[in-house]
Amino acid sequence: MSGTDSPRILELRRRVQQDPASIAFAQLAEEYRRAGDLQSAVRVSRDGLQRHPAYASARVTLARALVQLGDLDGAEAEFEQARRLAPDNLAAIRGLADLHQRRGQLGDALAEYREALSLATNDPELETKVARLAAEASGGVDAGSAIGAPVDDAARARDRRLLALLERWLDRILADRESRQGQ
């Protein structure tokens, strides 16, 4: 039996086929991802997110599958969207941190890992990553910065939280406007 024929996947697939509006699509996509069927994970995630665009965990699953497929820009967009929907989503924050680190954007990675550590205060893996990256970036300059401007990680994290809050606020205003126009 292959991973995509596991009893768990078969049951979730049956549930989603019986009720296409079910949020079980997120579990199915994650199971596909874990089984290594990344294309199915992406397809199921995108189909489900058409019906449930505010499902942050499903966006994280989609982003992780995209990372594994090498679509880092697509993954970053999904992690960012998940974070806008749920600013304290640890998986989205860590996913962004990992992406920044992978791209050599050490200042951004460090800021994200510090944000994650503020949510998971007793995580030794995060503590180690923050300490290691802080040592690597000890010059206080973002390795990806062309102009070498100093990085204020706390201010950057605060600005990102504020931006996410403002984007959610704007999304709600626009949704309210659309619903009023539809009446």
Q: What brief labels describe this structure?
A:
183 residues; 9 helices; mainly alpha; flat; Serine Threonine Protein Phosphatase 5, Tetratricopeptide repeat
SSE topology:
Elements (H helix, E strand, L loop, with lengths): L6 H12 L5 H12 L2 H14 L4 H14 L2 H14 L4 H13 L3 H14 L4 H13 L16 H29 L2
Helix pairs in contact: 1-2, 2-3, 2-4, 3-4, 4-5, 4-6, 5-6, 6-7, 7-8, 7-9
Describe the 3D structure.
This protein is mainly alpha-helical. The protein folds into 2 domains: 1-87, Serine Threonine Protein Phosphatase 5, Tetratricopeptide repeat, CATH 1.25.40; 104-183, no CATH class. Helix content is 74%, strand content 0%. The protein has 9 helices and no strands. It has helices at residues 7-18, 24-35, 38-51, 56-69, 72-85, 90-102, 106-119, 124-136, 153-181. Helix 5 (72-85) runs antiparallel to helix 6 (90-102) and helix 7 packs across helix 9. It is flat. The N and C termini lie far apart (52 Å).
Largest sheet: none
**CATH architecture classification of the largest domain:** Alpha Horseshoe
Question: How many alpha or pi helices?
Answer: 9
Q: What is the CA–CA distance across the termini?
A: 52 Å
Order of helices and strands: HHHHHHHHH
**Please, what is the average pLDDT?**
86
Tally the beta strands.
Answer: 0
Parts with pLDDT < 50 across at least 5 consecutive residues? 140-150
**Dominant shape:** flat
How would you briefly describe this protein structure?
With 183 residues, the protein is mostly helical.
